[in-house]
């Protein structure tokens, strides 16, 4: 197990290196000029050229890459071109909102998606099943920007139970933080809940058709025990896979959601960084997100082993 | 109404004081300041929350890259030597008085003012700020504004003298805005200044969380007094919340989450029309949509093709569809309220059939570049159908902002759709960048000596009549040559809670909140 872990962690190094190269080069292919945001649209060409030299943009690409990757290896992600803040500090500022949003969405997925999926599977082909799967399809096919607007209209403007947008850190005002996180978390969580619901229902139905379930039924075990202990545990392995895949998708979902609800998260950091061509920030933030997703995949594989003792590493 | 919702008591006193709100009045009122004034007692304190869509990247005025929107925030923390009122006149601020003789401007500074960090404001501090903007090493975005200042000299602690290389009619305007904002030299030297501003202004910087909000607290020792002698500012705290989505911004206004917004597009503010809690005032601020034609290559190097383009565009139709009917039509960046506006300038009349005939039957292929941001793509599509009907074969490319600018700088387009906010502080600031052959945003690639000469005349003269004449000629020339086609000008009213009063506007519509008050 320890050996497996070390091997998997070692495999991350070449992956991250390739990601860094591709990321760096892709960003350099973007048309546009970081000096537009820094100096304003009406700066003279000479001022722009001077600033580009200051930022080291007149040196060859390989040189710029080595400077950057050398910094990353020594723990220095560089400074924002736009605001001159250290990139690492900016990321630390922005991580909490996104992590919180993701965690609440995942929590919703587990707390709502799995029980609803179980219910739908147990009540197969009843009105309950149709209602739940119908809701699932609706949640999957509703775009986040639309759902967000709808939630704001109903809960912020009509009912006035939550503010339309805004953010306070959890550490400063836990209640205020959670009140403002409800709508964004529902928005982002809707898809994950739906995916988990559908997957749970599907794989539980498959498990319930297995021979060992018939055996368990024959021994006279209670239905509840058969479903929750015998069938569900086996059915959860694909659910975990799908949920883990959703974590990557969550990152892209947060972009839209963070923008609408004005949450200071990683999604808006990356997108605004691209729009303003603040490439050091984009590079640092994407690298952090990629590392995070790779680690989640690793943890997922470890969870398989826990869920299904037949899987060993 | 130029300064909407001014407190009634203030208004009457203002009217009484008339034109004497000058050096003398300011000094004497400052001396007799007390909180017991009738107007000052009402609506004092409270937190004003502002919904702001354009977060500054820095709060260092010397490095601010926005054309004007940062000033809404900077005005909280900074003062200038002199202020420019909405009507264009200059009034004393950190300088009690000043004298000009063409080649020098001498300022006598107000006594007893300190920066928020306790650093005294004196001639040394003022000189430090102006020299910092001029110094090429600062890479100040405002350096060009002080290009005619040869030297900045400290005569004594209260006297500052600027020696000019050439007379500059715009100098006082610049000194009254970002390029002349006074920052604490102590704080600037301490570093990381862009995120820790220290000025002499009505509010003291408190906190700034990127993409969330920025807070300023009342400066209890602010030097400026209201015209009735009461202390300023009236608000206890101002919070700028950075909300970019216009629908959410409207939701925040509706629910009272914010009491003032920078701007909302017509489709959003039209929905606020019946709300009694909300005041909307047309202050004359407009957004000016335009199409710049690339004259450096075919087909728009041919004046006849440009004329056909102008005849093809139904500006009324575009305005109705893209601005919910809330727009004006004007022949240039001028609005009907501007002193350089001339209603006799008229663009070619809508005549698609005439355009088609002029083009000679074969569809003329052109590339139109537009920005991916509502409502620009809609406008581009409207133009596309109008142009097709008039014998062009337009291809529309909707691009992200930086990509579009990149294409325009490289003159890799035929027609470019874009917008600017108007009015600016001076017409030279709207026209020169776009129409001078040396202009930084000369998208069309113009090298028109007539235009250059007119623009130079207008920018160099102190005489308003001469300047007006020159700017009218400039506009005529642009329209006659059809270098650009000016589309509609959507309205951009000042939108705020009915409880909020006392917002004072700069010439270009940016706010000053030192006199603002919230009724409880």
From TrEMBL, chain A:
Q: What is its main location?
A: membrane
User: Could you confirm whether the keyword ATP-binding appears in this record?
Assistant: no
**What sections of the protein cross the membrane?**
12-30, 101-122, 134-158, 178-197, 230-249, 287-307
User: Topologically, how does it sit relative to the membrane?
Assistant: Multi-pass membrane protein
Keywords for the protein's UniProt record, in alphabetical order:
Cell membrane, Membrane, Transmembrane, Transmembrane helix, Transport
Q: Which GO terms describe its cellular component?
A: plasma membrane
**UniProt-annotated location(s):** Cell membrane
Q: Which residues form the ABC transmembrane type-1 domain?
A: 95-300
Might you name a Gene Ontology BP term for this protein? Answer: transmembrane transport
Q: Which Gene3D superfamilies match?
A: MetI-like (1.10.3720.10)
Membrane listed as a keyword: yes
| Record-stated family | Belongs to the binding-protein-dependent transport system permease family.
The name this protein carries in UniProt is: ABC transporter permease
The record lists the organism as Micromonospora endolithica
UniProtKB/TrEMBL annotation, chain B:
Q: Name one GO molecular function term.
A: peptide transmembrane transporter activity
Q: Record keywords: Cell division included?
A: no
Q: Which GO terms describe its cellular component?
A: ATP-binding cassette (ABC) transporter complex; periplasmic space
Alphabetically sorted, this entry's keywords are: Signal, Transport
Q: Which domain of life is it from?
A: Bacteria
Which family, according to UniProt?
Belongs to the bacterial solute-binding protein 5 family.
Q: What is this protein called?
A: Solute-binding protein family 5 domain-containing protein
Query: Locate the Solute-binding protein family domain: which residues?
Result: 90-442
Please give the InterPro entries that the UniProt record associates with this protein.
Peptide/Ni-bd, SBP_5, SBP_5_dom, TAT_signal
Q: Which PANTHER family match?
A: OLIGOPEPTIDE-BINDING PROTEIN APPA, PERIPLASMIC BINDING COMPONENT OF ABC TRANSPORTER
What is one GO biological process annotated to this record?
Answer: peptide transport
Please state the span of the N-terminal signal peptide per the UniProt entry: 1-25
